[in-house]
């Protein structure tokens, strides 16, 4: 790599990938915390029903929020570690390394744009729910912007992780499927 621009870009891509990796790890840790919280809530619910014939009355709602939060917060971590389920049978059939890389970049960029669009939708919904003070129609009356914010955070981390992957590919790294 004699080109100074490519050297600088490679350094930038590496630094950006480190940032993305740390954010992904933070999202995964948050997902684990939500899983532990849901597990504890389920145990409390079982004990309340068995011993006291009562309930928290919010288990299904909170577990639903937790599953959504876990899914989106862990998304970038699974992508980074190449365990996200991907359909890549076309990519595997292409023999040219350059064509494979260009197709991979195109697919990741398409996903990145779609996730950015979804994130924009969530941002608008969060803003609207926050301004209106919208709450769930259950006994807990959870402000709806809270669970939606967790999904938005997960989407943002995922977009950052995909962008880091594209930067790594453009700086000369191998495809995930080749590592």
Automatic annotation (TrEMBL):
Its main location: membrane. Keywords: Cell inner membrane, Cell membrane, Membrane, Transmembrane, Transmembrane helix, Transport. It is a multi-pass membrane protein. The keyword Membrane applies. The chain crosses the membrane at residues 30-50, 62-79, 102-123, 144-167. It holds the Pfam family DctQ. Part of the tripartite ATP-independent periplasmic (TRAP) transport system. The complex comprises the extracytoplasmic solute receptor protein and the two transmembrane proteins. Belongs to the TRAP transporter small permease family. This is TRAP transporter small permease protein.
